[in-house]
Design a protein that fits this description.
Blueprint: E1 11-13, E2 18-20, H1 35-59, H2 69-72
Antiparallel strand pairs: 1-2
Length: 80
């Protein structure tokens, strides 16, 4: 779960350079006007990092007698 300054979840299409940003509503004058864009970029970056970590954990192999996730939970990878 990613926490952003806004309740709405933006749909970000980085490959095309377009994004649907959340409606920020009224913001205090102290907040920068580009905060919704920054929040959308940070949310997308957090999602990318999260997926990279999961991919790394699932692809890892055991080393020096320390089992990997796949070694311990191998049945999770078999088709049902």
């Amino acid at each position: 779960m990613v926490v952003t300054p806004f309740a709405a979840v933006p749909e970000l299409r980085a490959s095309t350079g377009t994004a649907t940003l959340p409606e920020a509503g009224p913001m205090p004058d102290a907040f920068p006007a580009e905060l919704p864009v920054l929040a959308a970029v940070c949310e997308a970056a957090a999602e990318v990092v999260q997926r990279a970590i999961v991919d790394a954990v699932l692809a890892a192999t055991g080393l020096a007698g320390i089992p990997s996730y796949r070694d311990v939970y191998g049945t999770a990878f078999t088709p049902r």
